[in-house]
Each structure stands twice: as C-alpha cells, then as structure tokens.
C-alpha cells in the first residue's frame, strides 16, 4: 500500500516494524532504507537483539554501577579492532566525538582541532563549524570557519581549522601552518554530508603523515562508517587512529556511543588515582540494555554478513547507475559498502562543494524523497540510505527501480538542469 506523505498534513507515525518494514498508524507498510539514520544494520526487531533484551529486562535498566554487559561489548569491539584496547561508552555519537576531542586536547595540551568542510560530527559547538556553509560564506580556496547555530560563541570559529575534503596539498599547507595549536584532526572517511564519497588515498596519507610528524592526534569518527568493514572504517581505509568515536550499530537499536583507543591515550579518563585529566560520566552511559542489544547485534554482524551486505551495496549502486544511464537522467549515486546517497547532478562528486545542490536541485531532491515515500520506500530527507541484513537481492533491485522511477517522474515534472 502507498505510504502517507512524510510532510504536513499527514506525516506517517511508526507503530511497529520488523526486518525491512515499518507499519504506520494507518496500517500502511513502508520499506525502510533509512534504518533510523543508518543505526539498524539488522533492520527492525532483530530476533537475536529482542531475545537478548527479554533475558535482561526484568533485572533492571540502569544501576549507576558497572555491569558485565559493558565489559562484554567492549571486549567484542576490541577483538574486532585490536588497536582499540580500551572502550568507554556514552549515550550518543555526539558525546563520543565530544569526549574524543576533549581527550585530544588533554593529551596534547593544545586548544585547536581540524575538521573537514561539510562533515557532520554531532551537536557539539566546535565540530558543528562549517557543517552547512554555503557559496555565500564558505570562502575561496581555503575554507572559512563558519558557525552553525545562533548562540555559538564567535571565539569557537578561531579554534577550528576547516580542511577541504579530497584536496591533499591544501590540507598539508593548512595543517603545517597551524600545527603548533592543533590537538586533533577529526576525520570521517565516508562523510555523508560531504557527499558520501570515500576519502582519497593521497589525502589519507597526508593526514596520517601530518599527525605523526606534528604530534597531532588522529580521531576517526566511525559513528556511521563503523559498519563498512568487520574491523571498522579505520582498518578499511588504512588509518592508524589515536582515538575512534563510534555509535549507531553498536547499540543494536538503542541509544549508544563509544570512544576507544590505545590504553595510553584512554588513560586520560582514568579516575582510579584521583581526578582524571578528562572527567567522563553519564547517567545512562553503558546501561545494560544498550550494551546487551549492542553485543547481540555485533555478534551477528560477522565477516560473512559484512561481506554480503557490502556486495548488495555494490549491486544497488551499479544498478541505479545503469538505469540512470539508460534513461539519460542527470543524476548519480555515491557511497560505499552498504551506504548510498543520491545527487541530482552529473558533475563528479569529490567533496562538499561539488556535492552542494543548487536551489533547484534541493527542491527536486525533496520531491524525489516524497515520490519514494509515496512508492512505499523511506529514505533520509537528503535521499541517502543504508541497507540492512534482512534485505534480499530482490529488495535491492526493487529499491533501485523505484528510485530511478521517482527521479524520472520528478525530472519530467520539473527539470533541474
């Protein structure tokens, strides 16, 4: 059945879900490609997660004391990523990135961080800088530090160096010029808002070399991208991070975040000998429900499961690309692994600026999003999505066909080029 429009006056309210499907308040089913903004790698109501939660729910939900469940999840993460010797849990990815930044400042004694233009790293003043800059304010060859929300102190911009994604020499020059004040370089190697294009090898080499050369901590944000490889995104891209922020899929559908790294760096959080260099706590951090759900989800996300999902992602992007070519539609899809994003342009997408939609393209994207929902497919508002393990090849083919049909319909009604 056709889904209700996402926007007013009839936004669909979710009532239940299982696997790939959400049932709304009107009883209509929607095929979910957003998966709670990429956090449900196994889809909805994943049986191993639900069964694990039923076993612990009657014992209590939060204690203010450690539980064995957090140790089990931390050990599972460290086993997959040996560089991550210690793990501290938070209640969100935003908190994980925030604590990683605070740790980097404490370790280095420096105040400044660097991040890439357009990259989203959560709702924290410093990492929001240049999140949604526009051609009107983003500067020329060297990106300006543009504040995101009203109320952010103007001084915040002076403590954030903004780097251009996939521009290695400019990155090297900017880092060299500011290295004495830089505590950390924050990297998401497959940043959705930057365009969801993998970071080029030469940029990765520059970032790693500058961190090693100047004593800057390399912080990898894997809140979204942890799913792309069994050992995490840093291993897939060949990084040697000092700290890694995680979230989303490691919670099995419940709120979660984590900051992890070598024991030498994680020591800044150690409170056993008095006041730590960085104080970390949280009323619901490492609560046994999130830890239990996360462990069940991670245990089921085996090497074979990762490989299968990645193959389906390759198939999806290939199928969409071929159908767009056959219909001569000015659009393209980017992504990697089980993640994808639509762009209504033919220009090669390399970074935030080349992915930035014109006003007409932005309006058309909103129409494509609504057209997909009317066809029974839920994507994120910017027309990106993530596959989940319950999906089949047939599901992926249906998704590709529906998306290209929605693009074609929108193009006929209001061309964007």
Describe the 3D structure:
The chain is an alpha/beta fold and 417 residues long. It has 2 domains: 14-32 and 303-413, Aspartate Aminotransferase, domain 1, CATH 3.90.1150; 47-300, Aspartate Aminotransferase, domain 2 (3-Layer(aba) Sandwich), CATH 3.40.640.10. The protein is built from 13 helices and 14 strands. β8, α7 (233-237) and β9 (243-247) form a beta-alpha-beta unit. The longest helix has 25 residues, at 303-327. The model has no long low-confidence stretch (mean pLDDT 95).
Give a brief outline of the structure.
The protein is α/β, with parallel strands linked by helices and 417 residues long. Helix content is 38%, strand content 15%.
The main sheet orders its strands as 4-10-9-8-7-5-6
Write down the CATH class of the largest domain. Alpha Beta
| Mean pLDDT over the residues | 95
Structural class: alpha/beta
The counted number of beta strands is: 14
Q: Topology as H/E string?
A: EEEHHHEHEEHEHEHEEHHHEEHHEEH
Q: Measure the end-to-end span.
A: 33 Å
What is CATH's topology name of the largest domain? Answer: Aspartate Aminotransferase, domain 2
Q: Which spans have pLDDT < 50 for at least 5 consecutive residues?
A: none
The percentage of residues in β strands lies in 15-25%
CATH superfamily of the largest domain: Type I PLP-dependent aspartate aminotransferase-like (Major domain)
Shape: globular
């Amino acid at each position: 059945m056709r889904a209700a429009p996402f926007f007013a006056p009839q936004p669909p309210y979710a009532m239940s879900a299982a696997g790939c499907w959400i049932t709304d308040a009107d009883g209509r089913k929607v095929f979910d490609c957003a998966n709670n903004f990429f956090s449900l790698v196994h889809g909805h109501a994943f049986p191993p997660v639900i069964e694990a939660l039923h076993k612990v729910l009657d014992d209590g939900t939060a204690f203010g004391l450690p539980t064995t469940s957090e140790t089990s999840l931390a050990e599972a993460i460290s086993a997959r990523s040996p560089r991550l010797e210690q793990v501290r849990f938070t209640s969100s990815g935003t908190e994980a990135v925030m604590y990683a930044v605070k740790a980097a400042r404490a370790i280095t004694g420096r105040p400044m961080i660097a991040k890439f233009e357009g990259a989203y790293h959560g709702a924290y003043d410093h990492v929001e800088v240049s999140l949604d800059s526009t051609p009107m304010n983003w500067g020329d060859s060297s990106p300006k530090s543009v504040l995101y929300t009203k109320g952010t102190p103007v001084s915040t911009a002076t403590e954030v160096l903004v780097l251009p994604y996939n521009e290695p020499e400019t990155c090297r020059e900017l880092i060299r010029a500011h290295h004495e004040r830089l505590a950390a370089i924050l990297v998401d190697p497959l940043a959705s808002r930057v365009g969801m294009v993998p970071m080029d090898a030469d940029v990765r080499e520059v970032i790693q070399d500058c961190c090693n050369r100047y004593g800057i901590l390399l912080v990898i944000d894997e809140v979204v991208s942890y799913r792309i490889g069994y050992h995490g995104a840093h291993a897939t891209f060949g990084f040697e991070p000092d700290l890694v922020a995680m979230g989303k899929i490691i919670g099995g559908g419940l709120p979660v975040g984590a900051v992890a790294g070598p024991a030498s760096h994680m020591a800044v959080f150690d409170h056993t000998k008095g006041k730590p260099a960085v104080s970390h706590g949280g009323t619901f951090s490492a609560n046994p429900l999130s830890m239990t759900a996360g462990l069940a989800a991670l245990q089921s996300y085996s090497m074979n499961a990762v490989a299968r999902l990645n193959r389906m992602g390759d198939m999806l992007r290939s199928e969409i690309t071929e159908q767009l070519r056959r219909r001569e539609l000015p659009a393209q899809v980017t992504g990697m692994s089980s993640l994808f994003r639509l762009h209504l342009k033919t220009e090669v997408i390399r970074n935030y600026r080349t992915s930035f939609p014109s006003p007409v393209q932005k309006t058309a994207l909103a129409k494509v999003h609504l057209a997909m929902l009317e066809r029974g497919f839920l994507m994120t508002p910017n027309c990106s999505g993530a596959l989940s393990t319950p999906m089949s090849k047939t599901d992926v083919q249906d998704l590709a066909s529906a998306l290209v049909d929605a693009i074609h319909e929108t193009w006929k009604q209001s061309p964007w080029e």
